[in-house]
């Protein structure tokens, strides 16, 4: 258990979720890929802007500023919550409460890359990550953010419509994937067969009489409850 780096986070709504923070190696590889992308983009821009002489020099400085500071913030605030490098490594940025990263947190964590870089080659940032179980660098500590592994889940089909419901207990990544895959097959199963398979996950599903607004008039079958949890896992909250 001491070697397990998974974290149990609780959202403001009281929902507990399991997160798997990314360590130094995948984050270093992601940063290297992003650096190469920025270097290539700046090189292409400089080739054209150099012809403009004085004005071109000013525009190159603006381009460098945008690639160095605006680039990560823009990508972290997009739906994928990750720069191209992080996305290639299967990572994303989120708040340490499990919620999507906020604009202020993204700006803070990226501005503090200056402190992480000190005294040379991200020495402070790497030391901080290696000494913490959640692998937070200094910018993440101040901003309250996490970089986590985000395995892509491919569904067998579209999820049926349902009112999202939170799971009864924290789910591991494997359990979340299993629920999503089963819910993706729901349209190809009879309601009886779906209920039968959903009972295998009954301990993780909300109680049959649970509803966000109070107690429902009739117990909810296992199948619809599993689909409701799948909708919640997909972010429909």
In words, what does this structure look like?
- By secondary structure, this protein is mainly alpha-helical.
- The chain folds into two domains: 7-149, no CATH class; 173-233, no CATH class.
- It is 49% helix and 8% strand.
- It has ten helices and four strands; from the N terminus they run E-E-H-H-H-E-H-H-H-H-E-H-H-H.
- It has helices at 24-49, 53-77, 84-88, 103-111, 113-117, 123-131, 138-143, 173-184, 191-198, 222-233; strands at residues 7-10, 16-19, 91-95, 145-149.
- The protein has a two-stranded antiparallel ribbon.
- A hairpin with a 5-residue loop joins strand 1 (7-10) and strand 2 (16-19).
- The chain starts with 6 loop residues before the first strand and ends with a helix.
What descriptors fit this protein?
mainly alpha, two-stranded antiparallel sheet, two-stranded antiparallel ribbon, 237 residues, 8% strand
Whole-angstrom Rg:
22 Å
Report the helical percentage.
40-55%
What profile does the largest beta sheet have? 2 strands, antiparallel
Q: In DSSP terms, counting alpha (H) and pi (I) runs of 4 or more, how many helices? A: 10
Which residues form runs of ≥5 with pLDDT under 50?
none
Shape, principal axes of CA atoms: elongated
Main structural class: mainly alpha
Taken together, the total number of domains comes to 2
For the largest sheet, list the strands in their spatial order. 1-2
Strand percentage, roughly? 5-15%
What number is the mean pLDDT? Answer: 85
Amino-to-carboxy terminus distance: 31 Å
**Number of DSSP E strands:** 4
| Order of H and E elements | EEHHHEHHHHEHHH
